[in-house]
Design brief:
Length: about 290
């Protein structure tokens, strides 16, 4: 469960001539409530295996508590950065599958939801893992609107503003987040999966905070892979290389140069297929050699 946080309203007071202030406030509150219920109904109709399902809400006075499905194994963030024991995500095949699951959920929001939804806060703590270790995107929330009040559309891909946590002057100027902002944020998650480093982490050599995106140079990830996972086998090297390339393209500076989430899904499908096919081939070859 989570407290509902509908879109922030402007704090400026105004008064329509000829209408009593109390009556105007009552009407404004009623309009906000109708908008909240309408948007809640739209979100509750979203249905995809890689999205956390919103069941409804509880209401008491001005409080609104959103009710979501229970996701047993917590967040990807917790498993990457707070796990003390080796777990199911300590293999490249599982990490690729988690990345693909999350990408499919975001692709659904951008491409198949009506109207399209920009998540605006993609991060590893908003990717949850169920009892079967299937990844589900959470917290795609309420009132995903542009500051001018218009709904953020999946067609608005040219803003180039970077996501929360990646504050830039450009975002400050535009004050607008789009599907390509989600792609950037997802690229950061992929870099976390590859390196085992937080989006912003402490660099011991530089003795200063460092952004994981700084690992990307000329479309390549120049950073050690997560040391908690055994080095990629020959069957995994190609797939992990593909994962690194996808992450690098997602965090390109210009939004128009980033792929769509549909492109990302297709790339991750190829990477996972490569990993599984080569792994099966490797096992088969090893079995044949041991039997001779």
């Amino acid at each position: 469960m989570k407290r509902a946080e509908p879109g922030q309203q402007a704090s400026t007071s105004y008064h329509t001539p000829g209408r009593p202030i109390a009556q105007q406030q009552q009407r404004d509150n009623k309009d906000k409530e109708c908008a909240f219920l309408s948007e809640l109904a739209a979100l509750s109709r979203l249905s995809h295996k890689n999205l956390v399902r919103l069941f409804g809400y509880c209401s008491e006075g001005a409080e609104r508590i959103l009710v979501y499905e229970f996701v047993a194994n917590g967040s990807l963030y917790d498993h990457l950065f707070h796990g003390n024991q080796p777990g199911p995500i300590e293999s490249w095949a599982i990490r690729l599958r988690i990345a693909l699951d999350a990408a499919r959920g975001i692709e659904y929001l951008h491409t198949y939801a009506v109207p399209p939804i920009v998540h605006r806060d993609i991060k590893s703590s908003n990717i949850l893992l169920d009892s079967d270790w299937t990844a589900k995107v959470a917290d795609f929330g309420l009132s995903r609107k542009n500051p001018d009040g218009s709904c953020t559309s999946g067609a608005d891909v040219e803003a180039g503003a970077q996501p929360k946590g990646q504050c830039t002057a450009r975002r400050g100027r535009l004050q607008r987040l789009t599907t390509k902002s989600d792609v950037y944020s997802f690229g950061v998650v992929l870099l976390e999966l590859l390196t085992g480093l937080k989006a912003v982490h402490w660099d011991e050599e530089a003795r200063a905070p460092r952004n994981v995106v700084d690992c990307v140079e000329e479309e390549e990830v120049h950073c050690p892979l997560d040391r908690r996972i055994p080095p990629p086998t020959p069957a995994e090297i190609e797939a992990v290389g593909q994962l690194g390339y996808i992450a690098a393209t997602c965090v390109r500076l210009k939004s128009c140069d980033r792929p769509t989430m549909t492109d990302v899904v297709a790339g991750l499908e190829r990477a996972l297929l490569t990993c599984l096919e080569l792994e099966c081939l490797s096992r088969s070859t090893t079995g044949n050699l041991s039997s001779t």
